[in-house]
Each structure stands twice: as structure tokens, then as C-alpha cells.
Amino acid sequence: MQRILVTERPNLADAAAEHELEYVAGEGVTGWDESAYYQFTMVEIAEDFLAPAEELEDLCLQVVDRAVNNEEVLSRLGIAEPFWDYIAESWRKGDKNLYGRMDLSYDAKGPMKLLEYNADTPTTLYETAVFQWEWLEQAKEFGFVPKKCDQFNELHERIVETLPKLGIEGLSHFACNPDIEDDKGTIGYLEECALEAGLETSFLGMEDIGLNDQGQFTDLDDEVITTLVKLYPWEWIMAEEFGSHIAASGVRFIEPPWKAILSNKGLLPLLWGMFEGHPNLLPAFFEDDPAAAAFAEAGTYVRKPIWSRQGANIEIVEGGKTLSHSDGPYGNDVHILQGFHPLPEFDGAYPLVGIWLVASKADGLCIREDKTLVTGTEAKVVPHLILD
Amino acid sequence: MKSWSSRSAVLMMSVSLIALTACEEPKVDASIYESLDQCKRDPLNTSDQCDASFKEAQSQHAAVSPKYATAEDCQADFGTDKCEVAPYKTSSGGSVFMPLMAGYMMGSLLGGRGSMMSQPLYRSSQSPNSFRTAENRNVGSKTGRTTVARSATSRPSFKSATRSRGGFGSSARRFGSGAT
């Protein structure tokens, strides 16, 4: 793993415009930085990322399998009782999953460590699948990178191939919070993939979803929603007014309801509880677990709310002192404590490796860099390539 | 509120897409009649066949027809005196309106009941000569034996008026992005 400085493409502003990404003169593309790239060997990709990520996925599915039958676990994850059967049923029926991104701390010196699993509403999908790939092709043409290099990136093809296999019939609706450009971009890209796969699609804002007298969800034309591809977290759906209607609505949700177990940071102590000592796991405990007290006593850990997103409300404690503490709106939830495995530093940047999984197979890699140990909303995607 | 006319626009788009990608959608045989009498006058049918298929279409009408919360909205799409009160109430006890059944499409006679069900047809005020399925698929103006796009013969879905919206979205207003 190396961080290599490289010339930005001279056509970057045009490329951004073509892909409808925000470009600010003097600053570049928002959330994107191609003044450097990360270089991996094929062995690193295959042995340090691909194989362990798929093994972790297998462990995660074992956690789900156990959790759906365990009311104590479900309630620890903050999942309300009325949804237990619904989630368990979606798992037993084998509702298919589309995608997710595992965030890892990796320094090339030891095995990567799972920091969290964005298994429900992962973002930076377009930057990874499309913009990063185009960067590689154009950087080769400009002679900025070796012609023979490759990239761990089959995301687009795999999403297009997987969407029609999810059991979707008829029109699928795609929904998110329409006020957030980034979320709209991601769901819009998924919709494009679905169209490419030959599916019929329609977009609407989550707030525009209606309920009819038969307890079905409807779009703005009163069409009954049968499949909903949502970039909207399960814990929000379950907490909101219409949440009580999801089970009877008959809607096929993508991601499926059982993903609520994996997108929750409570997954980390559950994994540790079942597979303690696994080389890709960090010790983790629910804060109210007696074992957490002993763990905290040692003075070095990371404290996270089970539902925070984009680096909010994360506290790093080292040697008994708070090293950093990010703000955010998620502070009131249940917390977990996790072992501290700092991100490596390259040129003042801290790369967080994301491994993408489509239908539970590892299919792509993206790196986000921030100037701090906690990767937040200021982080930028930095491209990567593979060269032996 | 159902907007029949705006859905037609969507439909036109998807039809032209299909035309571009698949050249032509497969067609199937169907029989369209304005009334039970018209069916019985057609020498191709027996009286029993007409009775059975009309009954099948009529029994679906209330469930699958487009629904409106006001008579005005219904009439805007289907015309004055072309709407009736549906046998449903909103949860607050209000009336629900739907268009009158303007005809029906008989199922395929050769394929048996399983292959294609009979279904009610409607006429919109925008294109009163054409019959449309409850899914707003135009099946032409011809009565008697005709051909229609196979997709127009699929079983229509249940429709009811949306009674409330906005039951999702409150977390997004509080937290912003839902992405991780």
C-alpha cells in the first residue's frame, strides 16, 4: 500500500460537469481528490481485502441468523418489539440483499480491522463505481499512471447483474430524502443501474409516500408501491409514523429488513461475542455490558452510538484521555466501546478503506481520506489502482 | 390524488422506450365489448361465454378501477356523469369515487382461464374513443375481436385512494442525510 502523488486530469472540471458532481474552482470536485492515488498489489487486494471481507460477511450473516431468534439481542440493538417478527420473517424467507460497504482500518502491516459495516445505506457508490473507474482510464491515457495497472472495481456490472435477481416484479420505486443532493445522486445512480438491467423504475421522496385504506404504500399517482429501493435507514423507517404499516404493506424493501441488524454498530460487539479473537475484528462491547467496564478501565477505546452516521458522535479515548470527540445529533442512543486501531497516516491524511459487497461478494474498493482519525463529512474519495 | 392524465404521459414515455429497445411488444388476441349485449351479438361467442366473462370483469371493477377522494377529480379525468361512488370509505368515513365501467376485455378463449382473465375497461375524457385498462393501458377503440399488447392483459391491481402522506421523512428533517 503506497500513497502516490499524481497530476490531476486537466479535464477535471468537464468530467465533474458530465457526472453532475459539484466542482469549485480552486478546490476541485467536492468530496473527491485525485492529487494522489493509493497503489496496492494484487496480493494485498486478494488476501488482505477480498478474502477477509467475504469471510466477515459470512460471520455477519451468522450473527443475523442468531439475532433474529433472540429477543434480548434485538432489543439491545434498539429494535422495537413490533418489528422482531417482521425482521425474523424477512431473514427466514431469504429476502435478498443488494449491497453494503465495510469500513476498515488497514496499514499493510497487519490484518485489516473492521471498524463498521454500512450495510443498509452506503454512500460514495457513484464515486467508487463510476468516477474512480473513469479516472483510471483517463489517467492511463494522459500517461499519469502505468498503462498496465488495474482497479478493484466491478461494482457497476455486479449491481446491474444483481438487481434483476432480487425478485422484483413490475415497477420499482426508488426513494430517499430528496433534499440531500448526495443521497439523491446515489439513489439516482441505482435507478440508472436498474434501467440498464431492464427494470421499470420511478423516483419519489420518502416524505411523499402515501398510505391507502388497504394499508398499502402509494406513490404520488396513487400507484401501489410493491418494491422500494430506499436510501433511508431502517431505524428511521421503523421509528416514523408509517413504520407501523411496513409489515402489512407487502412492500419488498431493498435493502431487506434483516439488514437493520448489520447496519447497527451493535453488530460489532455481537461479532466479537461470537468470534472473539478473529484477526479482522476489534474487541467490542455494549457499553452497559459488565465486560465493557473492564475494557474501558484499560483507558484506550473508541466510543460510538449504535446509529451514528458520517463520523458523528465518535469519541476516541487513549491512555485515559479523550483524543477526539466529534459532534453530532446521535448522542442519545445506546453506545458501544470498540478497540482503537488508528487509521494509518500518509502525508497528513488518514485513509479509510471501504470494501464494497454486492450480493455478499466483495466487488470493489474505495478510499476516503480525512484530516482526522475520524472520517467525517469533510472526507474525500481518493482513487486507487492495482500494480504488481 | 390519482392523476390519470399525468400517468398517461408516463405511459407514453415507457411505450416509446419499449419501441426503441424491443422493436415491438408482443401482441395477443383479445375481444373487447362495450356491453354484454354487444358480446352476445357477436357470432364468435356463446351466450354463456359472454355471461361468464362479463361477470368476471364486472366483479373486478370496484376493486381495480382508479379511485378518487372527490367526484370533481374523478370527473376531470373521465368526464361529467362518468363517475360513480365506490363501495369503499376513507378511514375518516368520506366517500370514494371511481369511473363507470365503459366496457370489458374478454380473456383469451383458447388459452383457458389461467392465461388471461377478463377485465373492465374505461374511457378517459382526454381520449374518449379509446378503451383503457384499469392500469391506464390504451387497448384501442376497436370492439369485437382485436389484438392488444400482451402487457395490457395482465391482471389489474387493486386501487384505493391514498388517505395520508408524510408518514415518512421526519428523521430526515432532523438528521439530514441517511447515508453512511
User: Which two protein chains have the largest interface (Cβ within 8 Å of the partner's Cβ), and how many residues from each?
Assistant: A-B, 50 and 37 residues
What's the structural domain tally of chain B? 1
DSSP helical segment count of chain A:
12
- Counting helices, strands and paired strands, the structural category of chain B is alpha+beta
On the 0 to 100 scale, the average pLDDT of chain A is: 95
Main sheet characteristics of chain B: 5 strands, antiparallel
What is the arithmetic mean of pLDDT of chain B? 81
Whole-number tally of structural domains of chain A: 2
Give a count of the beta strands of chain B, DSSP E runs of length 2 or more: 8
Our estimate of the beta-strand percent of chain B is 15-25%
**Spans of at least 5 consecutive residues with low confidence of chain B:** 1-22, 110-114
Indicate the percent of residues in helices of chain B.
Answer: 25-40%
Radius of gyration of chain A: 21 Å
Number of helices of chain B: 6
N-C termini distance of chain B: 34 Å
Helix/strand layout:
The complex is a heterodimer of chains A (388) and B (180).
Chain A: E1 2-5, H1 12-18, E2 23-24, E3 28-29, E4 36-40, H2 42-67, H3 71-76, H4 84-92, E5 99-105, E6 113-118, H5 125-141, H6 155-162, E7 171-176, H7 181-196, E8 200-205, E9 210-212, E10 217-218, E11 227-231, H8 234-239, H9 246-249, E12 252-254, H10 259-262, H11 267-275, E13 284-286, H12 290-297, E14 301-305, E15 315-318, E16 321-325, E17 335-338, E18 350-358, E19 361-370, E20 380-382, E21 384-386
Parallel strand pairs in A: 4-21, 7-8, 7-11, 11-12
Antiparallel strand pairs in A: 1-4, 2-3, 5-6, 5-18, 9-10, 13-17, 14-15, 14-17, 15-16, 18-19, 19-20
Chain B: H1 4-22, E1 27-33, H2 36-41, H3 47-64, H4 71-78, E2 83-89, E3 95-99, E4 103-106, H5 112-115, E5 119-122, E6 132-133, E7 144-149, E8 162-165, H6 170-175
Antiparallel strand pairs in B: 1-4, 1-7, 2-3, 4-5, 5-6
